[in-house]
Design a protein that fits this description.
With about 170 residues, the chain is mostly beta strands. The chain is about 0% helix and about 65% strand. It has a single domain, classed as Lipocalin.
């Protein structure tokens, strides 16, 4: 029998975000007008504590030598059946609040593809952070594959493609 103190049931309001719960690993490529193109490996974990949000942790390492690149931590909040809010902190001195939609797009199989689209509504910067003025994220979840793209407006550049990765589920809930 499952211990509800250690493994509470998912909150019913999580809805379409349920498929994210677990750990994911994969590879991606980054680019931006101000930097050289690079490859990276990534680990992402979505967890829960039985409330209407998911915990989120992300870490990337350089594809060439494994050095740490980036990390994010925060929460995915289910605020309506097809609406989500994202609250993140980046160690680079950036905080991000984004809102968006969650929907299932029908496919030939019965599960469909869960598409999550998020747009920043507020970016906070410490005095030493590089200027980031906007972030947009698109996620596509199909079975045990999570693909995403991230677009960014920063350091004087307009909203531009920055990251794309494909992750596979390595630990199920």
């Amino acid at each position: 029998m499952s211990d509800p103190q250690r493994h509470p049931p998912l909150h019913p309001d999580i809805g379409l975000l349920t498929g994210l719960v677990g750990s994911w690993r994969g590879e991606g490529t980054g680019e931006y007008p101000t930097i050289d193109t690079f490859s990276y490996t990534e680990e992402v974990t979505f967890g829960h504590v039985g409330k209407p949000f998911l915990t989120y942790g992300q870490r990337t390492r350089a594809g060439d030598d494994g050095r740490p690149l980036h990390a994010e931590t925060g929460y995915w909040r289910a605020v309506a059946p097809e609406r989500v809010e994202l609250v993140l902190a980046h160690p680079t001195g950036v905080t991000e609040i984004a809102t968006g939609s969650v929907r299932v797009v029908p496919t030939d199989d019965t599960a469909g593809v869960t598409v999550i689209e998020l747009v920043s509504t507020m970016i906070g910067l410490t005095p030493t952070a590089q200027s980031v003025t906007g972030l947009e994220r698109t996620f596509r979840l199909q079975g045990d594959t999570l693909d995403y793209t991230l677009r960014m407006a920063a350091v004087g550049e307009p909203m531009t493609h920055h990251l794309a990765a494909s992750l596979r589920r390595v630990v199920a809930p």
